């Protein structure tokens, strides 16, 4: 599973810290000479310059030194965290850590509030980030935010949003069909992860194996997106795998023909590893001699992103 | 200790701020030569007078190393002193005092300080997307082993906005916060820009309401409290008394300076709301032997409104924790009782990359030499200039006094 968010690359110096997080433990170096706690990890004490340091496990409790809520993502890849709850936490040992808050509402966040650690696994290789939540929160100390786990959680939410008794609309009832036209979008669909394996399969199938889709190494160095992105056409066809909860159902027709698209746009990229979801609205209904033509705007977004990655005005003829 | 005031800024040049997309593309060497020529013409000096160079090293288009030698060769200059500065937005202030030091030590008679900040033409093999890639992490290092790559980027901590926002948020918790006072900083500076035809926002008035209604970027900072990046470039000539005597303009003598830095991320500052301009300004005033009340204009580095507020407090103009009240009680325009960023500041002039800080140095020089046009102060002999790089991480101060 790839993700396009930057991930830490542990060094020989910092490896014990990251290995500790993977195991759900917070360990930081302490100077044996002067007792000073050192963060980020270094070979020397940044107070007395002794090189005699020892890794110590700490509880991870502390106070919120400061924070900000972002209204523009610091990188497009963080759109699914909006607003990012960027924070600096001061551990009880005195060291400060750049982090993000999790499991708290915006209005609950106050400078100097007490916080406790949350060990958040973010990629399939077990890489774990240290986040914090309010001390009083009943929240698991270890959570799984790998894209697959997040998509699975969204799956359940989307299923819950599906309406059991959908309003039935006869395809030849022009007034009823026209009443479906709306400016407002439906609820969001389930989510799926567009990972590199899926992109590679589509490249093979379609023959479009341009490096910006298929060569993560080169894309990391040369692509303005910092990594590979999915083919627009792939994201378009993935609409078949996104179940959009609708509160109506068109019934009574003998045949339904997909006439193609009136408009197909790819306004924003889908970086490999992103989760996508879609929603829809009925844009137009027109009675034709052959039957009833319905234009359905389907928009697919990277989760959290305001800009759609695919806009598809799908034209369907009910006969 | 320190400077005796025997070196002075005698000439200056800067490109008008322009959008990157429409600004002329020039090689950085070409810009250095062009800006140097314009600054020399401004001073009424000739190329042969220059025997020192201070240049901004990072992101120099034509070379990553050996930049001063390449520039000297290109310019056709023979140098006794060559220095690269790498202090972000503090580089302009830092370049000027380094040049003054070289002059006072007798190494040089005239030093060119120059920062090119227009984009270079793309070569046939150059990928135009390099800039998007370089900007992706907002100047944060992605190198293996860089602490910020390992401990900041994975959490989304990058660029400058959120760092400054977190400083502002902590300030709010400690001392209180008045968004109207913060907006007033931007508005007073805009009033100044309306008297500066070179400013990006010349002819575009701004109200407190406009600022408060602008898009929130990172709480509590709104987009009109954040500088707009533009293409540009700037140069000044710092010369000895002897050379200054035959220059065309009244010189701005460098009588005091200070510089202070000890962290890159303010997370690791002793206290985030006590900024390094404090000790830097203290040193500058002590060196010049003057008081805060002797200052007739302040040109304060203003990447964000919060930078200005904390500089007003920590440099000793406003009492600590009372800066917002102080801003409400003072008129910061060129007509006011505390003329500040009289060219509009970078917020209204535009921030031409690392050269942005030079706009403050040059405005101080223009005010002292009586060439600030409609916004010229009646009396301007003593000016305070600050520079800020990173996230309040590298800061410097200059005291400039008319010869």
TrEMBL record, chain A:
<dbReference type="Pfam" id="PF01796">
    <property type="entry name" value="OB_ChsH2_C"/>
</dbReference>
<dbReference type="InterPro" id="IPR012340">
    <property type="entry name" value="NA-bd_OB-fold"/>
</dbReference>
<feature type="domain" description="ChsH2 C-terminal OB-fold">
    <location>
        <begin position="55"/>
        <end position="120"/>
    </location>
</feature>
<dbReference type="InterPro" id="IPR052513">
    <property type="entry name" value="Thioester_dehydratase-like"/>
</dbReference>
<dbReference type="InterPro" id="IPR029069">
    <property type="entry name" value="HotDog_dom_sf"/>
</dbReference>
<dbReference type="Pfam" id="PF12172">
    <property type="entry name" value="zf-ChsH2"/>
</dbReference>
<dbReference type="InterPro" id="IPR002539">
    <property type="entry name" value="MaoC-like_dom"/>
</dbReference>
<feature type="domain" description="MaoC-like">
    <location>
        <begin position="190"/>
        <end position="288"/>
    </location>
</feature>
<dbReference type="InterPro" id="IPR002878">
    <property type="entry name" value="ChsH2_C"/>
</dbReference>
<dbReference type="InterPro" id="IPR022002">
    <property type="entry name" value="ChsH2_Znr"/>
</dbReference>
<feature type="domain" description="ChsH2 rubredoxin-like zinc ribbon">
    <location>
        <begin position="18"/>
        <end position="53"/>
    </location>
</feature>
<dbReference type="Pfam" id="PF01575">
    <property type="entry name" value="MaoC_dehydratas"/>
</dbReference>
<protein>
    <submittedName>
        <fullName>Acyl dehydratase</fullName>
    </submittedName>
</protein>
<dbReference type="InterPro" id="IPR039375">
    <property type="entry name" value="NodN-like"/>
</dbReference>
Automatic annotation (TrEMBL), chain B:
<dbReference type="InterPro" id="IPR016039">
    <property type="entry name" value="Thiolase-like"/>
</dbReference>
<dbReference type="InterPro" id="IPR002155">
    <property type="entry name" value="Thiolase"/>
</dbReference>
<dbReference type="InterPro" id="IPR055140">
    <property type="entry name" value="Thiolase_C_2"/>
</dbReference>
<protein>
    <submittedName>
        <fullName>Thiolase family protein</fullName>
    </submittedName>
</protein>
<dbReference type="GO" id="GO:0003988">
    <property type="term" value="F:acetyl-CoA C-acyltransferase activity"/>
</dbReference>
<dbReference type="Pfam" id="PF22691">
    <property type="entry name" value="Thiolase_C_1"/>
</dbReference>
<feature type="domain" description="Thiolase C-terminal">
    <location>
        <begin position="268"/>
        <end position="401"/>
    </location>
</feature>
